[in-house]
Amino acid sequence: MRIIPFTKLGFQNLKIQLEEELAKRPEAVKQLTRGRDMGDLSENGLYKAAKQELIDIDRQIRYLKNLVKYGKAVTPLNNDYVQMGHRILVETESGKKEFMLVGEYEANPKEYKISLK
Predict the structure, then answer these.
(1) What's the burial of 40, exposed, middle or buried (CB within 10 Å: 0-12/13-18/19+)?
(2) Which residue, of 28, 42, 57, 65, has the fewest CB within 10 Å?
(3) Which of the 8 DSSP states describes residue 117?
(4) What number of other Cβ atoms are within 10 A of residue 10's Cβ?
């Protein structure tokens, strides 16, 4: 498996997201147990909703664990050329905008974070 590059801040945020999802899981399990204890599962809305919530949490946990496992925080080595982690200033007719170069999993154009790929 290839290394997934992240900025230092992006990798820290990824670990925080994983911790948050892991913290949500026990409550979702309790909700599922409450729904199961109510009886007839075929028409039990609480059970179905809790089960779906737990499935979503577990899916997100697996996804984040993979990113943490194969991810690596990358810092720019020098300023001789543009690389991941650098901020670049783009001047257009409408004004100047500053972008940050990040890995593909961190990219978010709304936050002016663009991927190198």
Answers:
(1) exposed
(2) 42
(3) -
(4) 23
For the whole model, what pTM was predicted?
0.82
Residue 2 contacts by C-beta under 8 Å, 6 or more apart in sequence? 70
* pLDDT of amino acid 46: 83
pLDDT (0 to 100) of residue 1: 67
The structure tokens listed for 101 are 């170069």
3-state secondary structure of 63: helix
All residues at 6 or more sequence positions from 59 whose CB lies less than 8 Å from its CB, including other chains: none
- Dig out the tokens for 108 from the structure: 């978010």
Half-sphere exposure for 80 (CA within 13 Å, toward CB): 2
CA–CA distance, 69 with 4 (Å, rounded to integer): 9
- Choose between 57 and 78: higher pLDDT: 57
